[in-house]
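Working notes for the structural subgroup meeting. M.R. asked for a predicted model of this chain before we commit to crystallization trials. I am recording the input and output together here so anyone reviewing the notebook later can reproduce the run.

Input as submitted:
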Amino acid sequence: MPVNKLDISGKVCLVTGGTSGIGQAIAMEFAEAGARVIAGSSSAGKVAAMKEQLGPDHGALRLDVTDAASVKAAVDHTVKRYGRLDAVVNAAGVIKKQASLEMPPEEFARIVNVNLVGNFIVAQAAGRVMKDQTPDAHGLRGSIINIASLNSYMSLSEVLAYACSKSGVMGLTRGLANEWAQYGIRVNGIAPGVFPTDLNRPLIEGTPRGAWLRQHTPLDRFGEAGEVVGAAIYLISDAASFTTGHTIVIDGGFLTRGV
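Returned structure, recorded in token form:
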């Protein structure tokens, strides 16, 4: 009987931003697929709700991706509970629509700190654990997924800090993949198109901006958070054992459409 290389059952996964939007969808579907999941969030209320949704075989905890001590505690908790850390999904993020001429430098820095520096802090903490784990048959010890964006490839208006941070996420993904292959750690990205979440819903639902974004999408609709999960499952599975340093775009064709 052939082995299902997309089977992620038993894999231990930490998902930052795992209590809302795309991160929550990934955490829930990973658990449904048999992985062991810890979902991280800065919101105590969302952490409590996520614990109920995930059930006793999984967990959720407070996690501030900009705080190295908080991140290390989350990684240590995961390893202590399950014995190893197979995968991390960096899904925590913030966005703010504001004209760049009006944006205070400290607000720009806050967004970049969460979306880019936070990704590095989490990846570094995970990498320090993964590199010492027992390798599989391919010499691999772990997988990291960074959530990028359409703004990694282009810059939509008045979200400059977000676009800069997400461009950096792609650079981080390529750089870590190149450097950490020697440790058996794969690093990839996923760039979602337009997916209504708590993060961006006020910007795109019932707005001229949202109407334009949908019109520019060949499949003529917004995505649903669950439609990112297949790519995430692939990237942490054995089927992706020779895939690293790449970002999968899931955008309904948005980037293919010209003027």
